[in-house]
Write a structure and sequence with these properties.
The chain is an alpha/beta fold. It has two domains: about 5-145, Rossmann fold (3-Layer(aba) Sandwich); about 150-305, Lactate dehydrogenase/glycoside hydrolase, family 4, C-terminal (L-2-Hydroxyisocaproate Dehydrogenase, Chain A, domain 2, Alpha-Beta Complex), CATH 3.90.110. It has helices at about 15-25, 40-50, 90-110, 125-135, 150-160, 205-215, 215-225, 230-245, 290-305, and strands spanning about 5-10, 30-35, 60-65, 75-80, 115-120, 140-145, 170, 175, 180-185, 190, 195, 250, 255, 265-270, 270-275, 275-280.
Length: about 300
């Protein structure tokens, strides 16, 4: 493949996969986007629909393919996974999606892909750890979308609260992409000014914002059955950082290797993302309460990992 051709493969053409492909198309960062799904006709339909919008964007190649087309992908985005069934436990869902992930990873390994692996399917931290173990790749090449979405939700709420552009808000959700996530309040700023110095500051209001951030998915799913727009944009943002080698700091899920006393688990930490994947993991200062919350999040994830067979 010519070096100027940038290909992104999206595995799974459901709501999240198709919306991610749409966001990628609109971002114009890739010259090729291939959709792969067990329901090939679904992927064909999505590719057709996307192609009909190309005259309004830029000339890109978008098609429904097979794993042979994934061989030369610079980034492979895994969105394939099952939704939780009524009466099914979270652990049951983890086991089912781990089996689906194993099939995807095995197919990826068979074609010899040498790019970046971006896991989006949930529970994303557990599945990204499983993907890392199954591939045997350098951990920096295996990334989870992590709390990129949660961080965006937090910044949106803070922007509304403090009446500023959310792009000027610098605050992170870290840890698990899930119920045990934590907000890094101690270093949160707007334009380098601590939140506590703003007239609208109120600790109780911040706790409500964190609650709304953590439960946003439940609220959206209750109303429209699924979330996909914002995570699609988050996927495009991570891919942009990789393909353009931006060295962007994003709260992706990555392997902890001793940060804050945490290791051998994937969870979200502020990470420098570039062409080689996670190029550096940052360790912003935290108070004791925040460190305890992050460690608790890590233990929640490790407990889930202990209950599944990584080798499947």
């Amino acid at each position: 493949m010519a070096s100027d051709v940038k290909r992104i493969a999206v595995i799974g053409a459901g709501l999240v996969g198709a919306t991610s492909a749409y966001a990628l198309m609109m971002s114009r960062i890739a010259s090729e986007i291939v959709l792969v799904d067990v329901d090939h006709e679904r992927a064909v339909g999505e590719a057709m629909d996307l192609n009909h919008g190309i005259p309004y964007v830029s000339n890109q190649r978008i098609w429904a393919g097979t794993y042979e087309d994934v061989r030369d992908a610079d980034i492979t985005v895994i969105t394939a996974g099952a939704n939780q069934k009524p009466g099914e436990t979270r652990l049951d869902l983890v086991k089912r999606n781990s089996e689906i992930l194993k099939g995807v990873v095995n197919s990826l390994m068979e074609v010899g892909n040498q790019g970046i692996l971006l896991v989006v399917a949930n529970p994303v931290d557990v599945l990204t750890y499983v993907a890392w173990k199954l591939t045997g790749w350098d951990a920096k090449r295996v990334i989870g979308s992590g709390t990129v979405l949660d961080t965006a939700r937090l910044r949106h709420h803070l922007g509304q609260r403090f009446e500023v552009d959310p792009r000027s808000v610098h605050a992170y959700i870290l840890g698990e992409h899930g119920d045990s996530e934590m907000a890094l309040w101690s270093s949160a700023t707007i334009g380098n000014v601590p939140l506590s110095q703003f007239p609208q500051y109120d600790r109780a209001a911040l706790e409500q914002i964190f609650h709304d951030t953590r439960t946003a998915a439940y609220q959206i799913i209750q109303r429209k059955k699924a979330t996909y727009y914002a995570i699609g944009l988050g996927v495009a943002r991570i891919c942009e950082a990789v393909l353009l080698n931006q060295h962007s700091v994003l709260s992706v899920s990555t392997l902890a290797t001793g940060q804050y006393g945490i290791e051998d688990v994937y969870l979200s930490l502020p990470s420098v993302v570039g062409v080689n994947g996670v190029q550096q993991v940052l360790t912003p200062p935290m108070n004791e309460e925040e460190i305890a919350a992050l460690r608790h999040s890590a233990e929640v994830l490790k407990e889930t990992l202990r209950q599944i067979d990584i080798n499947l």
